[in-house]
Acyltransferase family protein
Amino acid sequence: MSRDRAVDALRAYAVGGVVLGHWLVTGLVLAPDGTLSQASPLTAMPSLAPASWLLQTLGLFFFAAGYASARSAARRRGGPAWLARRLRRLVLPAVALLGTGAAVLLAATALGTPDATLSVALTLTVSPLWFLLPLLVLVALTAPLRAAVRRWGPLRCAAPAVAVVAAVDLAGRLLPQVPGRLPVAVLAAWAVPYLLGLAHADGRLAGRRAALGLAGAGAAGLAGLVALGYPVSAVGVPGAQVSNLHPPSLLAVALAVTQVGVGLAARPALARLSRRPWAGRAVGLVNRHAVRVYLWHQPVLVGVAVLAGRTGVALPGLHTAPDGPGWLVARLCWLPVLAAVLVVLIRGRTTGAAAAARPAGRPPADGIARPVG
């Protein structure tokens, strides 16, 4: 089966949106005693909240994952071997992150790094791992979910998941102390775009009419939910009592459906763009290393901030409080630096993994190290 250029482009946009969004909403403030604390520009600049609808792209990520799982299962005929290989590709990068993080944390502790800084670094490094749990469960359920979509269609299959998220939202407002809401909502909410990805891989949701129907339904849901009092921000805001992402709310589901619909409507344009050499190389690079990019982008931000903070100078946009447009402009100037460090880190890790996977003494056939994972 050939690659679907449009879905690859959507996955690249999804990964890029998550990375860019985290780098823009994660402020690290350097105190006079050298410690780092976390802050969010959305607290001081709430007018930026609508921009989170463009950068909170987890729905597209799960849509692309569902599509890829269905295509891969069809190509390799599913089965335990396929599932083990699929899960291993998700788990091994996370294990590598945890192992490296533990070693760095031990070294930083020995060097006398303040506890507050270590706490922020640990939180930002580990927090992205949450997505692995629902993704692993959904990948494991790919076979029965595909069968259900083929029998009843994607909308009928997604309706129960939407109902569960609605029930969790209601329970959160009426009974906020009820335990267990987070894992239930996380699995149900992200099952919706995953099911849409399975359906699209099976030839459903094809055509402009279906795409515009999804986009229109999602947009209507967004407008209605905001009118009902849901927060406008698609990500959590420090100090806010209600979050659309922790746990994911109906607004997060509506946003995911809207993004999937818009993405499917833009398929021809995305396919044409991906055929251009520079765009095709960028999309291919992100797709080959999507999980690693997702896992390592926050450690890169923390690492750059901590190392630069050793100078004792609070650098604008990196160590200063996110309290106005000036901070945002300064942070934008730091993005190329963060991206360059991330690229170097990912390429170094994949080259090392490729070398370790080859038999001793045997170079690549063409002398070029190939990325793995």
User: Anything to note?
Assistant: Confidence is low (pLDDT under 50) at residues 363-373.
